[in-house]
Amino acid sequence: MIGAQMPVDRRSGLLAGRQGLVLGVANDKSIAWGIARTLHAHGAGLAFTYQGEALGKRVRALADQVGSTMIMPADVRDDSELDRVFSRIADEWGRLDFLVHGIAFADRSDLVSGLTSTSRENFLTCLDISCFSLIDLARRAVPLMAAGGSILTLTFQGSRNVMPNYNVMGIAKAALESTVRYLANDLGPKSIRVNAISPGPMRTLSGAAIGGARKTFRTTEANAPLRANATLDAIGGTAVFLVSEFGSSTTGEIVHVDGGYHVLGMPQPENL
Ligand code: NAD
Question: CA 48 to CA 23: how far, in whole Å?
Fold first, then answer.
């Protein structure tokens, strides 16, 4: 093709034959869904979980779009549901090549006021669902990753820098990022890699629960070096890299997909 743009082949087959479990799809705006559909476009087979029947119908419809037939309920605080998820994967697939952890929770009241109003109960719930769940899921995935594997989670720059109203979730993300490093070291000898993607603010259900989310979204968009927030496709593409052979030497990493916002020391002069 001379003088014309080559069409982009999204179906690279890069992940043909790979099978993975995706946790954290709530709707078609979910980051986990953006990752799932991109992994599928590159050949991966997928199983999904959903949290509670209210989300089940939506997740089943999305899973259908990517040819998935393994769709299971799983609240990460419910051991018996997780037992069933992993025993079904063991029975039907016998192995797991990757796991995508797209789960976080904080009580909405803690995302609109200062940190000092967070109760012990809310703190523990947030850390349990948003951080401990990754340790628990990794432990369950290891026996199925005998040939190696890739575990991915999602974090946010609010782990390191104070972001408006992020509060207890920033603490959970700091713990999650540390968890990524410790798991990467524990599981490295088994050729299991553990990484996190750190997108900028995204318009999702969870994102909307954070006080001032619209202002934060507009501010990062206006000031990021690329003058744009992340897209689901860009996050999905990063996941393809981390799951594929191209990511085979990368573990314990936090990969920013945020238009470069994390490098800033202050807003762009034009916005002052
Ligand atoms: P989302 O609301 O679409 O997804 C969050 C998911 O967590 C939902 O599917 C929900 O069902 C699940 N979940 C919550 N509690 C659970 C539990 N007890 N058991 C099982 N599942 C549970 O929102 P999202 O923005 O796609 O969030 C996905 C991940 O991305 C989260 O870790 C979030 O912190 C992270 N992240 C989000 C943004 C953003 O701006 N939206 C930015 C960076 C990182």
Answer: 6
